[in-house]
Amino acid sequence: AQSVAQPEDQVNVAEGNPLTVKCTYSVSGNPYLFWYVQYPNRGLQFLLKYITGDNLVKGSYGFEAEFNKSQTSFHLKKPSALVSDSALYFCAVRGYNNDMRFGAGTRLTVKP
Amino acid sequence: NAGVTQTPKFQVLKTGQSMTLQCAQDMNHEYMSWYRQDPGMGLRLIHYSVGAGITDQGEVPNGYNVSRSTTEDFPLRLLSAAPSQTSVYFCASSYSGGGTIQETQYFGPGTRLLVL
User: Fold this and answer.
1) Distance between CA atoms of B76 and B94, rounded to whole angstroms?
2) Contact between chains at A90 and B33 (C-beta distance less than 8 A)
3) Peptide bond before B8: cis, by omega within 30 degrees of 0?
4) Residue A79 Cα to chain centre, angstroms
5) pLDDT per residue rounded down to tens, chain B (116 residues)
6) Would you say B72 and B5 are in contact if contact means Cβ atoms under 8 Å apart?
7) Which of A45, A72, B54, B106 shows its CA 20 to 30 Å from the CA of B2?
8) Nearest chain A Cα distance for residue B23, angstroms
9) Spatial distance between the Cα atoms of B51 and B104, rounded to a whole number of angstroms
10) Cα(B81)–Cα(B21) distance, rounded to whole angstroms?
């Protein structure tokens, strides 16, 4: 079955600095990769997805992600972090059978 | 559109009690799913449905039942609650026309369940 790994439980960055949240995946066949964000006491919100095409995917709120097939990675990035970006971020992969698997999540804290 | 709605928002059960978590969507989505979220484990798929009358098991289906009699509703039933089922439950939906799997999922606000 497909799976994703988020190697960092916590990422801390200063406001204005670039941020990266890491994700690696394992799947048979073509990967369908997603990033979601969760704010306290809320459901998940979609940020961006990779289906096919350009390896750099642009999404909501200035986030982007780079798909790297050779490294089986799909890292989330933003050039300049905001305090309001502080949240829990989930990487997910969807397999051919519609089965969606999420990573354990990475808590991003952006300090003023 | 209300999107994906879930009821109740919070529930306390005693071990052995049964209950149904409700999920409804008004976007005419074919695909619906249930997840549980536990600290340090992310979201784990319980059951999913690709259309009315069709359901399948996800990663952690034991102790849960589902049915899909209409496109709009996808209830999750706990027949005999156990403390291990204490969690936050999220329902989600997406388009799945033609069997495509790349569609974005939309999540409900969640149901927090405590089993004593």
Assistant:
1) 17
2) no
3) yes
4) 15
5) 779 999 999 999 999 999 999 999 999 998 899 999 998 788 999 999 988 999 999 889 999 999 999 999 999 999 999 999 999 999 999 886 555 555 788 999 999 999 99
6) no
7) B54
8) 13
9) 16
10) 12
